[in-house]
C-alpha cells in the first residue's frame, strides 16, 4: 500500500466570485436619524484572491492540525485507563442509539470522541456511564444535526433512568472538563475529505463505513488523520481497491498508520467474535427453552 501520499487535493471545478455592484441603488438619508447601510462588495473583495473551496483545504488543515496537537498534548497529560469490556458495551450502545434515532455519522463520531475523552481524563462510575454517553451524543447533535433531537428523546432512549436535571448537570461537567473545546475534526472529517477526491466503488464505501464503526472502539481517537488513513488503507485491501487512486490533503505518519491498521484488524476480529458469542448464547437459550417445553 502506498501511504506516502501527501499531495494536495486538486480543485474539481472552478468557481468565479461574482461581485454585486452597488450601482446607484444607494438610499439617501431622509432625516437625521437615517443611516446608509449599503455595502460596496466590489470594493471590499476586489483585492481578495478568488479561490475554490478545495483551494482553502490546505490552510484549513494547518489550523486544524495545530488545534489537534494542543488537544493531544493535554489529552496525554490526563491519561486514565478505560476497562475494555466497559468501553465495548457503551460504544456499542451509542451505535445502536445512532441507528435508532437516525443521527448523522458526524454526530456519532463527535459524540464518541467526547465520551472517549471524558472516560480517559475522569473516572466515571458504572451507573453514570449511560448518562455520560447519552449527554455526549446530545452535545454532538447540537453541533452536527440540522434538526437537533430534543432532550426528552435522549431521556426516553435511556429508559427514563435519568432526569432532565441530571442531563443538564452532566452537560455542564463535560463542557467544563473539556474546557468548552468540543468543535473537533474527527477522523470522519478526514475520511470524507479523502473520499471527495475520486469516484469510489460501492464495495469500497461499504468497507470504509464498516471499518469506521469498528474504529470507534480504539482507545485513542485524537490521532484523526492517521486513523482516517488506516481506515482507507484497510478498506482498500478488503475491497481490492487500488488505494493509490485517492490522495490525502493532510500529512500522515506512516509507522503510526501501520500500527493503527493492525489495531483495526484486531478490533474487527474481536467485535466479530463478540457478536457471534452473543448470537450463540441467544440461540443456546432459545434451544434450551424449546427442549424444556418439549420435555414437559
From TrEMBL:
Would you tell me the Gene Ontology cellular component terms? Answer: cyclin-dependent protein kinase holoenzyme complex; cytoplasm; nucleus
Listed Pfam families: Cyclin_N
Q: Which residues cross the membrane?
A: none
Q: Name one GO biological process term.
A: G1/S transition of mitotic cell cycle
Domain named Cyclin-like: residues:
92-176
**Known InterPro entries for this protein?**
Cyclin, Cyclin-like_dom, Cyclin-like_sf, Cyclin_N
Asked whether the keyword Metal-binding is assigned, the reply is no
Question: Per UniProt, what is one GO molecular function of this protein?
Answer: cyclin-dependent protein serine/threonine kinase regulator activity
- Recite the UniProt keywords alphabetically: Cyclin
- Give coiled-coil spans as residue ranges: none
Gene3D superfamilies xrefs:
Cyclin-like (1.10.472.10)
Q: Which SMART domains match?
A: CYCLIN (SM00385)
Q: Which family does it belong to?
A: Belongs to the cyclin family.
Q: What is this protein called?
A: Cyclin, N-terminal domain containing protein
Species this chain originates from: Trichomonas vaginalis (strain ATCC PRA-98 / G3)
